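Note to self: keep these together.
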Amino acid sequence: MLCGLAGAAVPAPESVLVLFNSAVPESGELAAIYQKARNIPGENLIGLDLPIVADITREDYRRKLEAPLRAELDRRGLWLRKRDREGVVMPQVSKVQVLAIMKGVPLRIKPASGLEPVAPSQTDPLKGHDEAAVDSELAMLGVEGLPTEGALPNKFYQSKAGFQQANLPFLLMTGRIDAPTYAICKRMIADVEEIEKTGLWGMACVDIANKFPQGDQWLETVAKRSVESGFPTILDRFDETLPKNYPLTDAALYFGWYDWHVSGPFVHPQFQFRKGAVAVHLHSFSAAQLGNAGQNWCAPLLARGAAVTLGNVYEPYLHLTHDLGILHERLLEGDCWAEAGLRAMPVVSWQGVLLGDPLYRPFRHLAGTGVVKDADRDYRALRAASMRWKNDPAERRKQLDAAAERTRSPVLAEAVGLDFLNQKLTLDASVRFKKSKLLAIRAEDKARQDLHQIAIDRANGNKTVAIRGLRDALTQYSGLPVAESFSALLKILDPPPPPAPKPAPPKGQ
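Structure:
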């Protein structure tokens, strides 16, 4: 095995199975592309004749997917299954660690009734719920006779040991390469190939929207670790999500919640994530469908350039979704996408799905290794500074200030401003944002510095000053898409008066 950061082990190619729908030629083609990209043995490709639908019945899942796939692993000797002491048939030894599922394989198992899921019970919210993500069910493929109602505990959740050391032969790490089009799926594979040579570098954005303490804390953890790792991090703690057309450029990391459909920066038709980006919006139905790039969240994020995301196909309940803090921590420590995702998920046989190359390791070059691209130099410098002056933030900011001045870099100036802002040193932050605006060339980057300042005024209770800044910005950026960000915020801080009531018609009419 190859070892990455903190000794993280990468699943060997021969431990990866690639599942595709043989009834869909493009699904088989995608499987072959992925097999070649990851040097997976050709005999590890498995095609099943599956319904060409996103939603499959429980009966079809069992008869056309689960049983044939289980039989195929039995036939190929990829695991040894026998009864345990409780009489349950399950793998005792397995050569398979990862199941990579291609677009074309059904996504969701419908409720057994064929109707919409039942309303939750106050005493047992999972009672009567047998709907699930196909991928989550397949995580326990080798175990026979499992209940279909509710969720099953994930024995790898919060594991201190890596998957290879955890000795859980009955469990599979599952991931799905799926998106609105096959072209996007192919792009996702190609992007990961490229970025694993350079590492993932760029801006981080964490949008905490103050919904429920548990989810907010996950996002606080993501922000803290991003800052500590040297990523310039935009942290928004206002109740609403980021406004329409927020100018988020160079975005490599995005974590936020809680809108039903794609919003904020991502509705701008020209928005693109940095190649290889990790992007997650937490919502109960973020992966309810993957075919429409304008609805929910997973499909839109992938269509806008993200390499990986995750979501839920039906209502999962917050405590049974991926812990985003653990996910991010494990990625930074060198886990691949599938391992980090499984470690962060408390249950299987439920609603969660990981999208993107399950073997992707975005931070394999976080220590400064890898091919260096000009576009990454400022971000690599920020990472190097975070390591060199980890315990001396004043010296770190001093050195980065000097580097920003010397290189005329708006990226470094903004990063120092965000560093000050995260330490609540708002006057120092404002100075750096003004400097970054002067150095920036793109209007979007200039506008973002104005938005940082407006956020400072707003957080400090200077509502009048913030409103004045918004009105000035509307004039400055008039005619540009980014103006909608300022307009949306102005409606929040200074809403127009309600329309006057219509006069009552005269009596007798």
